Amino acid sequence: MIRDLLPGFAASAEAFDDGAHAPLFPEEETLMAGRQPRRRRQFATSRACARRALSDLGVQSAPILPGRHGEPRWPAGVVGSITHCDGYRAAVVARSGEAAAVGIDAEPGLPLPEGVRSLVASPREAASLARLGAREPRVPWDRLLFSAKEAAYKAWFPQARRWCALRDVSVQLGAGGTFTAVPPTLCPEGAGYEGRWLLHAGLLVTAVLCPADAPGLPPETVID
Ligand SMILES: CC(C)(COP(=O)(O)OP(=O)(O)OC[C@H]1O[C@@H](n2cnc3c(N)ncnc32)[C@H](O)[C@@H]1OP(=O)(O)O)[C@@H](O)C(=O)NCCC(=O)NCCS
Question: Number of helices and strands (H, E) in the chain?
Answer without folding.
Answer: 5, 8
